[in-house]
Amino acid sequence: MSIEGMFGARIGSVIRGWTDKITEINQKYATPRIKMSRGVKIALLFLRLYLVLLVVLLCYKFWTLLT
Amino acid sequence: MDFGSTFFYKYRRFVKALKIYLLLAGPGLIVMLADNDAGGITTYTVTGAKFGYGLIWFLLLLLPVAYVVQEMTVRLGAVTKRGHAEAIFDAFGSFWGWFSFLDLALVNWLTLITEFIGMTAALSIFHVPPVITIIVVSIVMMLMVLQGRYWTWEKIAILFAALNLIYIPAAFLVHPSISEVINVGLIPHFPGGFNGTLFFFLMANIGTTIAPWMIFFQQSAVVDKGMKEKDIPWGQMDTLIGSAFTVIVAIFLVVVTGTVLYGSEVESAAQAAAIMMGTNPWLGTFIAIGLFDAGFLGAICISLASSWAFGEVFGWAHSLNLKIREAPWFYACYLFALVSAGTVVLTPNAPLVLITLFVQVIAVTLLPAALVFLILLLNNEEIMGKYRNTTLQNIAGATIVIAIIALSTLYGITTLFPELIA
User: Fold this and answer.
1) What is the pTM of this model?
2) What is the rounded distance in angstroms from the CA atom of residue B363 to the CA atom of residue B299?
3) What is the chain A residue with the closest CA to B97?
4) Mind telling me how many Å the CA of B270 is from chain A's nearest CA?
5) Contact at 8 Å (CB) between A3 and A18?
6) Tally of domains within chain B
7) Which of A5, B150, B170, B277 has the fewest CB atoms found within 10 Å of its own CB?
8) What is the domain extent for residue B135?
9) Residue at B6 is within a domain
């Protein structure tokens, strides 16, 4: 079913406009401009691991609050 | 040339340089004084009440920290003519772009709520109802941006930033012992020994020095102002003067609370102002006005940083030099941020304390990424050309960035798990 069918013509067209815009942005920036040297790769890997650690800590905090 | 001619020549040169500086001053001065926002003022107030003058030496260390990080945004903005959000999308692709952008939007919105909390708390000391504060502040903030010129907005913002200096006369009102300030404050030591509480305060003071919105705000402001590569030295001087002011304001506030409230259990700047109103109404008034101004400055910069980022990412027109009909989405974002944050503050039983704590945790998720991207971008020759970081700048930048990441992460974790420092 199309977006317009799910949400109605008016809201559907707004949602479609946004999704099209996000797709356009993703395509525009699909390829990182910066050269992926070893240093850049290490820095980005560090950031990914750092974010995973923070998400784990936040989930743990949430779990301790619930229990 | 005789002495008189030489003096006159140097005087004319100085006046000319001052005029150029006053034309180009702005982003660095505003962002640095806005750095002492409601949260920052609260941190310095409580630091003074808890440790007296004992941590003034540590505040001095924040000057190079603030300068080194923010100076990089000046060069990046002047060379690329892009804001930080757009620069991240362009250089690192859509995954990191969306992460930074969405995290910034969230953390800015939450921080904006804390600025409104600070402003309403400050004016409640003068019996101004929160609803009036929020409505009037929102109208003033909208009028500031709707006049259609970046230059005018900037000069009005500088006037409000100057009000941040109110803590300097406030310090003279409390007649501190200068020798004690110098002997206790300027000699590095850990008052009461190095313990969990002290470490928490050191982290809090570092945490308030560099916030994610500052990086995004200054870079976008440099672009909107139209600064070029040749203006970089002026932008650097602007940032250095701003960094000095931010530390001076922090020190004078610590002197005030360290003199009057040392040993008291104070939890916020508004509480400190209320206590001082009982003993010295002038002092209480100064502290309350300073807190209000801090929240106001923070609010104008944070809401603009978000609006600029939205414009950069979605490709909308995004400049204070444009009228509403030329950049409707830019101003709509700005208005939405103000109205939604104000509504949350006015909502009965809203979890405002939780939001204040949550800000610190969410900011920690964005700050390392923003700082690491800044260093990587500043080292890219293709992007920066001859303006890329030198070895010395990289050593200073990397050291400071690693220290900020480590301390702000620990600060965020101890906010989540306070039992760690108990």
Assistant:
1) 0.90
2) 16
3) A29
4) 30
5) no
6) 1
7) A5
8) 27-420
9) no
